[in-house]
Amino acid sequence: MNRDFNTWLSSFRESIADYKYYIDFESAYKNLNEFKVELNILNSLVGSKNIETDFKNLVAKYPEVLKAIPILLAKRESEIYCQDDKGVFKYNFKNKNYDIDQYCYFMRETGLFDLLANKVLKDLVDYVLGVEVGLDSNARKNRGGHLMENLVEKYIVEAGFIKDKTYFKEMKIKELEKLTGLSLAALSNSGKTVKRFDYVIIKDKMVYAIETNFYASSGSKLNETARSYKTLALEAKSIEGFKFVWITDGLGWVDARNNLEETFDVLDTVYNIKELEDGILSSFK
C-alpha cells in the first residue's frame, strides 16, 4: 500500500488528553486527608496576634502538627534543607531534630508566620487542597506519557489480541528472545543495549514489536527519536519473523517533519491514531 507522507501527517492530532488528564482529584483528596487533622489544629493560628508564642504552645501540646508544615510550602518531603548566613539546616518535620526556636526561625523566614498571622488565608484545609491541585498539575507530563500507551492498548484489545497470550506489555529484548526463540542481536548491539518495547503482538508466527509516543509540541527529542527508529527499522528488516512497528502522533511532528519523513520512507509499519481507528491492527498477519 502506497501512502503519501503529507496526507498521513495532515491527520495528526493536536492532543489526546482525556477527562482525567488535567487533575487527578482523587489523588489530591487522598493527599489532603493525610494532613487534615493537623491542618485543622493549625487553623487556630490563623489571625494570631502573637504568632510565635501561639505556635510554640501549639507544638508543645500537639507536636504532630509539625508534619503538616512542608505541604504549606508545596513540599511533600518530611525534610527541608535551608541555609543563610546563620548556618545550614536540614529540618525534619516528622521527627523533630531542632529546638522549637529554630522551627520558629524557619516559619518566620519562609513567610509562613506572615501567611498565618495576617489572615492571608481563612482555612488551611482549603489552602492545602489548592496546593495539592497545583502539585498534581505537574504530574500531567507523566500522565501524558501513559495516554498514548493506553490508547494503543485499547485498539490492540479491540483487534482481538489477549493480554499475556497474544500481546504483551513492556517487554525487553531478552524476554522477547526467550519467549519467541528469535535472535534479536541486530537490535541490541549483540546484547550490549537494553531495549524494551511498549507492546509485543504475536500472531501466526510473526512478532510485532511496537513503540508508541505522542508529541504535542516540538523539540530536539523528536529528531532524535525519528533517527533512532529509522535505525531500528533498518536493523529489523534482517530478522525473519519479526516486524518493528512505530505508532506515533501529535502536532509536535510538524516542525520535525523532515526526520519523520525519512523514517516513514523506510518503515512501512509506522502508523498514527487515525489508522488505529481505521483498524490497522486487525490487518496484522
Describe the structure.
With about 280 residues, this protein is an alpha/beta fold. The chain has two domains: about 5-15 and about 140-285, Trna Endonuclease, Chain: A, domain 1; about 25-135, no CATH class. It is about 45% helix and about 15% strand. The protein has 14 helices and seven strands. The protein has helices at about 5-10, 25-35, 35-40, 50-60, 70, 100-110, 110-115, 125-135, 140-160, 175-180, 185-190, 220-235, 255-265, 275; strands spanning about 80-85, 85-90, 165-170, 195-205, 205-215, 240-250, 270. The strands form two sheets. The chain has a five-stranded mixed β-sheet. A two-stranded antiparallel ribbon has the order 1-2. Helix 12 packs parallel to helix 13. The longest helix is centred in the middle third of the chain and has 19 residues, at about 140-160. The radius of gyration is 27 Å and the shape is elongated. The two termini are about 15 Å apart. The relative contact order is 0.12. The mean pLDDT is about 95.
